[in-house]
Structure formats: C-alpha cells, structure tokens
Amino acid sequence: MTNRSSGSSVALITGANKGIGFEISRQLAKRGITVVIGARDETRGAEAAARLRDEGLDAHHVRLDVTDASTIEPLPRFFEERFGRLDILVNNAGVLLDEGTPLSDLDIEVLRQTFATNFFGVFAVSKALLPLIRRSEAGRIVNVSSQLGSLADIVNPDSDYVGFVSFAYPSSKVAVNALTALLAKELRGSNVKVNSADPGWVQTDMGTAAAPLTPEEGADTPVWLATLPADGPSGGFFSSRKPMSW
Ligand code: NAP
C-alpha cells in the first residue's frame, strides 16, 4: 500500500498535448504538482511533456485515447506504479464536430462520436481512476465543460452564443454537467470534489484565433477548481471562478 501523504500531488490532464489542456498542465506544474499529460498520440504527448520539462517543470505523459478502453484500463496501475497516487483528474479532452449543423441535419453517427469523447470518455476515465483518487487527502475532479452546455444559456434569447448552431457538442456538455452533479452527490462527505468549468471562448484549434481569451486565461478556472482548498465547493459549474447556471 502506498503512503498517500508522501511526495507532491499528482494530476492527470486528458487531451493535454495542446490547447487549454496543455496550459492547465503548465499552470498546475508551476504550483509544484507533478503533471501527467494524457494524449492519444504518444509522440505529441511526449513532446508536450518535454516542453514543460524544458521549463523546469515535473511533467510526464501517458498514451490515452478516452474513447479507447484499451488505453484506459492500464491507467490505475500506471499511476500506482509510477507515482503511488493520483490526486487530480482534469477531464479536458473534447471534440466539436458539428459546428453549423442543427439537430434536423445532424447524422446520428456524429452525435455518437461526439458523446464518445465528450461524455462516455469522461465517464470511463473518471470511473477507472476513482478508487485511486478516493485515496487522496484532497481528490479533485474537474470536468471541462462549456457555457454552451448550460441549459439556462441555451434557452436565453440574449445569450452571447445565440447564433452558435450545433446540437451534438452542447448536448454532450449538458451531459457532462449532469455527470459532475451526480458524481459530486455520490462523493458527498468524502475528500473528493467534483466540479465543471467553463473556460470561456479560448484561442485554440477548437476556439479559433477569433476567440477573445488566451489559453492561459482559459486554464484559470479549471486550475482553480483542481486546487480548491478543503472548504471549497463541490458539485458546481463555474466560469471566471464564479458559479454559473446549469
Ligand atoms: P483543442 O485545442 O482542439 O484540443 C483538444 C484536445 O483534446 C487535444 O489535445 C486533442 O488531441 C484532445 N482529444 C480529442 N479527442 C480525444 C480523445 N478521444 N482522446 C484523448 N484526447 C482527445 O481544444 P481546446 O479548445 O483546448 O478544448 C479543450 C476543452 O475545452 C474541450 O473539452 C472543449 O470542449 C473545451 N472548451 C473549449 C472552448 C474554446 O473556446 N476553445 C470553450 C469551451 C470549452 P489531438 O491533438 O490528438 O487532437
């Protein structure tokens, strides 16, 4: 059995070879946390971890395609053997496959692919690693959601995103928010906090250069939730470190 109080905290960030996930990794590592970059492409993951090590940070990588059970199953053993612990899981990997396509034109296969990554991936990785995270004195699970996954925002005719047309992506983020609330409920009274983060509209391959926020800014709320103190919230949805409507 591992001594859970020894060494620095360890975090896994999924889809962290670029974009917001990479910046979350950097900011967590700058706080002295050992970070493991989850990447579906081994080479891109290794290169991302090397970039952080070049900055003097403690960064590692693991091959992880959140839609591929054969890459999820080895994760608990990987963390047990390499680090003896896992404290923080940031479910960041995500895809936007149907921008511009309303429900009436959407191929159900695209809906399935979107949910495979954005929802079932979060479920599978969280479930696999939960026993390890439960052993942490300060377990934190952060699900990177979106304002587009807020039902209150979807029905708001004055929303900033009123012109954004997509069905699969927003509904997958609504589902992620349900997972956050239900898992937080299951873990009530434990050392594990579960929250959803809206990073804002961020300059990444997904967000495009037209977005107003830098990846550094987009990473702020997820990092804040990943490092909440013991008296911090659980079962919430946050944007710019403030609660937002489901
Ligand atoms: P991004 O630059 O496109 O990066 C997405 C990351 O997810 C990449 O590392 C990608 O890997 C990875 N990924 C995709 N499918 C995966 C899978 N099956 N298994 C493992 N990794 C996978 O996007 P981003 O903007 O940084 O988005 C990060 C998160 O923020 C997503 O959940 C997104 O929905 C959310 N978000 C973004 C914005 C925004 O404005 N950018 C706004 C709200 C929410 P590859 O490099 O191999 O493709």
3D structure, described in words:
- It contains eight helices and eight strands, in the order E-H-E-H-E-H-H-E-H-E-H-H-E-H-E-E.
- It is an alpha/beta fold.
- Helix 8 (215-226) links the parallel strand 6 and strand 7.
- An eight-stranded mixed beta sheet has the order 3-2-1-4-5-6-7-8, with helices on both faces.
- The longest helix has 27 residues, at 108-134.
- The chain has helices at 19-30, 42-54, 69-72, 75-82, 108-134, 151-154, 168-186, 215-226, and strands spanning 10-13, 34-39, 59-63, 88-91, 140-144, 193-198, 237-239, 242-243.
- Helix 1 (19-30) crosses helix 8 (215-226), helix 4 (75-82) packs parallel to helix 5 and helix 5 runs parallel beside helix 7.
- The protein starts with 9 loop residues before the first strand and ends with a strand.
- The protein has a single domain (10-243), classed as Rossmann fold (3-Layer(aba) Sandwich).
- It binds NADP nicotinamide-adenine-dinucleotide phosphate (NAP).
- Unreliable segments of 5+ consecutive residues: 1-5
CATH level-3 fold name: Rossmann fold
Rounded Rg: 17 Å
Principal-axes geometry comes out as globular
Domain unit count: 1
CATH architectural label:
3-Layer(aba) Sandwich
Beta percentage is 5-15%
Overall pLDDT metric = 97
Distance between the termini: 39 Å
| Main pleated-sheet profile | 8 strands, mixed
Give the helix/strand class.
alpha/beta
Task: Report the total helices.
Answer: 8
Q: Give helix % range.
A: 40-55%
**What is the total tally of β strands?**
8
Output the strand order for the largest sheet: 3-2-1-4-5-6-7-8
Can you list the ligands bound to this structure? NADP nicotinamide-adenine-dinucleotide phosphate
CATH class: Alpha Beta
CATH-wise, what's the superfamily?
Answer: NAD(P)-binding Rossmann-like Domain
Order of helices and strands: EHEHEHHEHEHHEHEE
